Amino acid sequence: VEFTKADSGHLRFPLQQEMADLDEISVTHDAMVILKHHGSYQQQNRDLQRSDKAGYAASYQFMLRLKNPCGKIDAKTYQAIDDLSNKFGQGDLRATTRQAWQIHGVRKENLKAVIAGIYDAGGSTLGGCGDINRNIMSPPAPLADPAYQHAFQTANFISELFKPSSPAFEELWMDQKAPSEAEYWRKDMVRGSIGANHTPPT
């Protein structure tokens, strides 16, 4: 795994080439190692593994995990991932025990549209999976108490500090365009956890 990452051109290869091949519904092991750092896992429908081998072979799909420090997500981003799940996924959202959100059932040909949609709405999947720090948790109470505020701000700064710094994310999923909305936790790094228009953490 470490050799694969070292040879990836800062989290680009072979994922970049394989995502361009839309005739293939899955990615290779090496591309999957890199894709995890972009916030996605490749999966198959295990319910079909014994009953429908042909269906199982064709059931490749992808799970996307948002990286949202402290479990906090603003209303615009939540609406976006809900819409994207209905349009491109299996129609549900999953809140995890690590204060993150997941979209399941995304096909390879739709992966770029979903990741770009999340990013444009102020969210991100970068660093949501893989052998890195992933999501940073904090006490799930958006209170004005200084101790809560300190924990919240620290979680935001840790998340920002340790996320992958490669430009590959915007190259692969956004065609090198900046998102139309800043990631919401960057705003919170300045104004704290009790800003307006935010859904409290789960």
Q: Please mark out the parts with pLDDT under 50 across 5 or more consecutive residues, or reply none.
A: 195-202
Helix content: 40-55%
**Relative strand content:** 5-15%
Structural class: alpha+beta
**Morphology call:** globular
**Widest β-sheet, arrangement of strands:** 1-2-5-4
Give the number of DSSP strands. Answer: 6
Question: Strands, helices and their partners?
Answer:
Blueprint: H1 2-6, H2 15-20, H3 29-37, E1 40-43, H4 53-57, E2 61-65, E3 73-74, H5 75-88, E4 93-95, E5 101-106, H6 108-120, H7 146-162, H8 168-173, H9 184-191, E6 198-199
Antiparallel strand pairs: 1-2, 2-5, 3-6, 4-5
Helix pairs in contact: 5-6, 7-9
Considering the chains and any ligands shown, give keywords for the structure.
alpha+beta, single chain, four-stranded antiparallel beta sheet, globular, 202 residues, two-stranded antiparallel ribbon, disordered C terminus
